[in-house]
Amino acid sequence: MIRILVSDAVIDLAAEMAGVEAEGAGAVATFTGRVRADNGVGTLELEHYPGATEAALQILAEMACTRWALLSATIVHRVGAMLPGERIVFVGVSAPHRSSALEACAFLIDRLKTDAPFWKRETRGGQKIWVEPRDSDDGAAARWSMPS
Amino acid sequence: MIRILVSDAVIDLAAEMAGVEAEGAGAVATFTGRVRADNGVGTLELEHYPGATEAALQILAEMACTRWALLSATIVHRVGAMLPGERIVFVGVSAPHRSSALEACAFLIDRLKTDAPFWKRETRGGQKIWVEPRDSDDGAAARWSMPS
Amino acid sequence: MAIEMLYFAWVRESVGVGQERVDPPADVTSVSELIDWLGRSSAGHARAFEDRSRLRAAVDQVFVPLDALLGQAGEVAIFPPVTGG
Amino acid sequence: MAIEMLYFAWVRESVGVGQERVDPPADVTSVSELIDWLGRSSAGHARAFEDRSRLRAAVDQVFVPLDALLGQAGEVAIFPPVTGG
Fold it and tell me: What are the beta bridge partners of residue B94?
């Protein structure tokens, strides 16, 4: 089962976790990314490419399900304005065994960073600044490009 | 912050997740292991070595916090009798960045499988059978033995 | 042939609009040529498209390199490298 | 010197008790020698300790190889390879 959600609503962690667990799998791995309060960041805005975003996330989830024989893959990404401490992204996968769940979860968040059309803008001391991509993100995504 | 809990009570996922998130970190990675319903397993019993178990988990958590500069590490392991679908173990870590959180989470569950004194006994069709360790567990644990 | 252009993040801000309908001449056959042609339409377009290394594109919602051909494209998006997750 | 023995999982079941206080002679200096000596105390002990490759040990709650010395050990645990998580 694949679940993709791109929404400006607060990410409901309990509901998403329950959905991932509902598959009855032995192993569940999750990743949650949140707005950090460091460096004086006030708010964070996330812009995206409606339609293309959901399609990109769907493709990633399908790739993960095929490669690791997952029972489920969930990707929830928030868009719009959010505050420090709020959740930006939730990735949850369930699989019969732990290594599949752990690897697929890392794959999804690494590839999401480079393959899905989201753009972050931070507000620092009243200034709005578009976040620059990090080279380390390309490196993290690239390690999944060879079959394991 | 390190939290270690070995208990015969049901693992309260929502409470544990909230505890991990309370550190205010940018990245949270979790792993949940549950009793599978496959192969006709009725119940699962977990025996442990009181005192030594908690000490072993504490050492693993301290190693992870040092190696990946985590903000928090939580390990909750259930003992006693449990039913298919119930949670056996929860590992949750928080860190400033995602790679630290993902790696530390995988490290903790891999090493827990080989370093902490737990023993599983399954009931299959009325027969109680001690679970044999899997060679793949040693392999998964061994990959963390070289500095990364 | 009319193409629906979409701009995101600072490309959108620099161009001044998030979306516009354009009708490039027949000799504009690639995304790169489309960007060249659009760059002449306003100072905002020119500024947005100045540094090609900072631009990414999608044709009909599929990510493509800038030298990709337009073919029968109905929708072309130009944007900075992505920063989600 | 008295030692508190602990047994877990099928080792416990085979020995018949989870805990016992023993007082080995002075020439028992390693975990392995302790297992040899205990193996002679009952049929259950003998059966539990038959296949050394399936046994693991902890001295004063620290995991050790079977050839580890006992030193001033107060508590020794014998058990199968662990299967948690």
Answer: B28, B72
